[in-house]
């Protein structure tokens, strides 16, 4: 039997309810309710409570570091980390990242210097990072994109040779282990600290939240003070600080999520493989598939739509899927350097980042994660196949509705 017509061509949408990228994972409700009761019984809602402590221990163990410092979100965590490290001047960052990486620097009066990514990994290109280092450079910032590590060994070596720290925005990479070092280990190669996000769209969440991972005890202490108004101890304020604390409900939510993390990762891996296999023979589309780290979380299914070989453009395919209630997304498009406040800077400032722009123009992230079932993948893949097969009709319909 032929498949039903595409929604864009007059058929019914594949799904009655939208399928999103990054639908939140909801841990088992009875366990959440039990944690909630414990919090309410204890009448301890925030300020370094026992759930935040437990979450920090679990995160530290899971990532193989000595310290995890929970925060209200990853953006503020990045800011406080930059501040705690005393960075001044420029930081080198990839432009293909969530805008928060760059904005966090600006809030801390640092200048982001955008550099290229490697088209294979989508992570910062170590050679480009090395070439961008100058006397103004305060730190290298790698981003562990798509739940996988960037090239920490090479970046750490480059940072080490330049006498600057390597810091990682690991917001998307909860569960992914990388080598961390303390500032007392100048010859070691690794990151001084990394920042994970526990935002609702991440592999496991605390609704809003984040954490800084490090092996540096003094840095962890400093970060604890910074997140709590500069308090050291019961009522002594020793420095400037802010309120970046995580509350107990959020911590409990994340703890229950972490208990399920291994199963979620297994599910994510299966979903991604299913997509990959079912779309393997289609022209002009492929899956982003760098050599995977054993601890990658596989939270994102990243389809690459080749502008020359694919019969539809990335955006045409996206709109066709939207009509099916499949809310596939562009990511980081068109690159941070082309977003404000960076895009309107003078031409002499604008970086030349062709690899970044090509990747940003090709990426289409498909619904994946715990809310997407294998049956969903079959249906979504079938609609992608149909869309490419019927590309002439699809394009015509899109053009007609755009001019209407
Ligand atoms: C790469 C990257 N950096 C930073 C952030 C910011 O995280 P948060 O939403 O927890 O502030 C995100 C999350 O959306 C991200 O993907």
Strand arrangement, major sheet: 2-8-7-6-5-3-4
Largest sheet: 7 strands, mixed
What's the CATH architecture name of the largest domain?
3-Layer(aba) Sandwich
Low-confidence stretches: none
Estimate the strand proportion. Answer: 5-15%
Level-1 CATH class name of the largest domain: Alpha Beta
Inertia-based shape:
globular
Instruction: Count all strands and give the number.
Output: 12
Provide structural commentary:
The longest helix is centred in the last third of the chain and has 19 residues, at 261-279. This protein has a 7-stranded mixed β-sheet, with helices on both faces. Strands 9-10-12 form a 3-stranded antiparallel β-sheet. Helices cover 38% and strands 13% of the residues. It is built from 13 helices and 12 strands. It is globular, with a radius of gyration of 22 Å. Helix 1 (29-42) runs antiparallel to helix 8 (248-258) and helix 9 packs parallel to helix 12 (374-389). It has 2 domains: 29-258, Aspartate Aminotransferase, domain 2 (3-Layer(aba) Sandwich); 261-403, Aspartate Aminotransferase, domain 1, CATH 3.90.1150. By secondary structure, the protein is an alpha/beta fold. The protein has helices at residues 29-42, 50-63, 74-84, 99-107, 126-132, 152-162, 217-227, 248-258, 261-279, 314-323, 354-362, 374-389, 391-403; strands at 19-20, 67-71, 90-94, 111-115, 137-143, 166-169, 193-197, 210-214, 285-287, 301-305, 326-327, 363-366. Bound molecules: pyridoxal-5'-phosphate.
């Amino acid at each position: 039997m032929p498949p039903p017509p595409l929604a864009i061509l007059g058929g019914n949408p594949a799904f009655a309810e939208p399928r999103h990228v990054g639908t939140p994972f909801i841990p088992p409700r009875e366990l959440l309710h039990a944690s909630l009761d414990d919090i309410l019984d204890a009448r301890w809602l925030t300020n370094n409570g026992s759930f935040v402590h437990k979450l920090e221990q679990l995160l530290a163990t899971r990532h193989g570091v000595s310290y995890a410092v929970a925060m209200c979100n990853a953006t503020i965590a990045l800011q406080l980390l930059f501040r705690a490290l005393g960075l001044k001047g420029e930081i080198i960052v990839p432009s293909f990242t969530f805008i928060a990486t760059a904005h966090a620097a600006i809030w801390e009066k640092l200048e982001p210097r955008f550099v290229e990514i490697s088209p294979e990994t989508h992570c910062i290109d170590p050679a480009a990072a090395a070439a961008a280092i100058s006397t103004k450079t305060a730190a290298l910032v790698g981003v562990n994109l798509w739940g996988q590590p960037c090239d920490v060994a090479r970046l750490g070596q480059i940072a080490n040779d330049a006498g600057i720290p390597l810091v990682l925005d690991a917001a998307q990479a909860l569960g992914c282990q990388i080598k961390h070092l303390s500032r007392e280990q100048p010859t070691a190669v690794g990151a001084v600290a990394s920042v994970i996000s526990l935002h609702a769209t991440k592999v496991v969440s605390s609704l809003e939240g984040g954490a800084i991972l490090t092996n540096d005890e003094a840095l962890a202490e400093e970060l604890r003070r910074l997140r709590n108004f500069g308090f050291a101890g019961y009522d002594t304020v020793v420095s400037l600080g802010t309120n970046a604390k995580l509350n107990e409900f959020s911590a409990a939510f994340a703890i229950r999520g972490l208990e399920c993390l291994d199963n979620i990762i297994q599910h994510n891996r299966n979903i991604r493989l299913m997509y990959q296999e079912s779309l393997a023979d289609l022209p002009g589309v492929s899956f982003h598939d760098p050599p995977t780290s054993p601890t990658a979380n596989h939270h994102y299914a990243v389809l690459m739509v080749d502008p020359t070989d694919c019969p539809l453009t990335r955006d045409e395919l996206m709109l066709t899927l939207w009509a099916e209630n499949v809310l596939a997304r562009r990511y980081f498009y068109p690159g941070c350097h082309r977003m404000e406040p960076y895009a309107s800077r003078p031409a002499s400032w604008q970086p030349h980042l062709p690899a970044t722009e090509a990747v940003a123009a090709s990426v289409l992230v498909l619904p994946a994660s715990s809310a997407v079932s294998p049956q969903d993948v079959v249906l979504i893949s079938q609609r992608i196949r149909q869309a490419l097969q019927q590309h002439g009709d699809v394009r015509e319909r899109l053009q007609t509705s755009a001019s209407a």
